[in-house]
Amino acid sequence: MPTIAASFDQECASVAMARIAVYRADTEEGSDILRWLDKMLIRL
User: Fold this and answer.
1) Chain centre distance of CA 40
2) Whole-model pTM?
């Protein structure tokens, strides 16, 4: 596991978050997706 953590960068995390946001936009109702994504990327 330390090997994965050492090679995991912010760009990779941003791409993963974008994929999750697209999935959430397709499966959930409402307009909170952008607010959620903004909050999560700021935390990142």
Assistant:
1) 7
2) 0.62
